[in-house]
Amino acid sequence: MTKVLYNNNIQDEVLKNKKIGIIGYGSQGHAHALNLKESGFDVVVGLRKGKSWDKAVEDGVQVETVAEATKQADLVMVLLPDELQPKIYEESIKPNLEAGNILAFAHGFNIHFSQIVPPANVDVFLVAPKGPGHLVRRTFEEGAGVPALYGIYQDYSGQATELALAYAKGVGAGRAGILETTFQEETETDLFGEQAVLCGGITSLIKAGFETLTEAGYQPEVAYFECLHETKLIVDLLYEGGLETMRDSISDTAKWGDFVSGPRVVNADTKARMKDVLTDIQDGTFAKGWILENQANRPQFNAINARENNHQIETVGRELRELMPFVKKAANKKKDGVPN
Ligand code: NDP
Ligand code: MG
Ligand code: MG
Q1: For 35-40, what is the mean pLDDT?
Q2: 322 among the known binding-site residues?
Q3: Which residues take part in binding Mg(2+) 1 (predicted)?
Q4: 246 with 258: CB under 8 angstroms?
Q5: Angle formed by the axes of helices 27-38 and 160-170, to 10°?
């Protein structure tokens, strides 16, 4: 099994005399900034005036513009939305980076797909918590943490690994486990996971099931419960104990149906198309499409988004969730940001 590092394997002195700039104060940003500060590090947050700025001030952290925070910091962690990073990097971060500084990310996309090309005289690493920002913060406050991946892209100082591990420990990941990766592996697996399984795969599966039932004349409300609502119960069991625990908790009829019908729905053909999706990620086709889509002001993204929000499973779901206050409460915690 791959090596997993914990707090007692990590020396964090190497980061103690450095100022850490956290650029962005959203899902990940607020968690990194507050956890690092409470771990005893010197933190400055870089932002524009707005919602996050007010929140950071309220939380008692030092807040500056992105340019000023970069200037003051030795280590700059970029926690802006991925699609905005290249522009903000060019305008406000790059001109204020000094030789020997450290540039860090929580996701490899912009470095791996060359949207940000760092100077040769800085360290570049990633520390990617494998969990939503609010959980990174909450578990830290509870004395625990969220596991993280770390990877080195550029080791100018010769200390990039030590620095990345010290950073990961500072955000609390050393309490849960830290695994080594590369920018390439983190980027490609993250994109694949969210496209083929976690987001794209699951929403398409749910919709196909819902449509099959409603087209056969069953009530949309019943189809909603069967195909969407109950997924949470199943996913919680998968999370706790894998396929076996989930299958041990359902009836044997459900388990038999799982065995004989699951592979008829998700079959070799589906897997071949997953492979196509992976190829598009690996050869840059997906990245190029998403970068161009953003440059064009997202015409397709917005059109699909509007159409999807009007699907019958959504209109029926909105009505049903109104009648389930316990479900609405969970929804208010929103912007977990996972998968990122
Ligand atoms: P969010 O969208 O939650 O937060 C973005 C932050 O950037 C906000 O504080 C926003 O402030 C600020 N911002 C936006 N535009 C500007 C600007 N022009 N100038 C200054 N600040 C700006 O991002 P996430 O935390 O979701 O993602 C950050 C990074 O972390 C990404 O690389 C993502 O892939 C990665 N990641 C995210 C995870 C997650 O849980 N969400 C998990 C693992 C990695 P404002 O209020 O002013 O808009
Ligand atoms: Mg992810
Ligand atoms: Mg992602």
Answers
A1: 98
A2: no
A3: 190, 194
A4: no
A5: 90
CB atoms near residue 272 (< 10 Å): 9
Nearest one of 68, 19, 74, 336 to 199, comparing CA atoms: 336
pTM of the model: 0.93
- Residue 107 annotated among the catalytic residues of the structure: yes
Judge whether 183 and 151 are in contact, CB under 8 Å: yes
CA 251 to ligand 2 center in whole angstroms: 32
Taking domain 4-181, whether its CATH number is 3.40.50.720 is answered by yes
DSSP string of 180-242, one letter each residue: E--HHHHHHHHHHIIIIIITHHHHHHHHHHHHHHHHTT--HHHHHIIIIITHHHHHHHHHHHH
Task: Find, among 101, 96, 29, the residue nearest to 67 by Cα.
Answer: 96
164's CB contacts (< 8 A; 6+ apart) are 104, 125, 126, 127, 150, 151, 152
| Ligand 1 near 21 CB (within 6 A) | no
Residue with token string 């609390």: 172
Is the Cβ atom of 66 under 6 angstroms away from ligand 1? yes
Q: How far is the CA of 191 from the centre of ligand 3 (A)?
A: 5
Residues 6+ apart with CB under 8 A from 41: 15, 16, 18, 20, 170
- The overall average pLDDT reported for the chain is 96
Q: Is the CB of 50 under 6 A from ligand 1?
A: yes
pLDDT tens track for 237-279: 999 999 999 999 999 999 999 999 999 999 999 999 999 999 9
Domain ranges (residues) in the chain: 4-181, 190-331
| Cα-to-centroid distance, 270 and ligand 3 (Å) | 22
- Interface confidence, given as ipTM, is 0.98
230 labeled part of a ligand binding site: yes
Determine if ligand 1 sits within 6 Å of the CB of residue 132: yes
The torsion angles phi and psi of 121, rounded to 5 degrees, stand at -100, 30
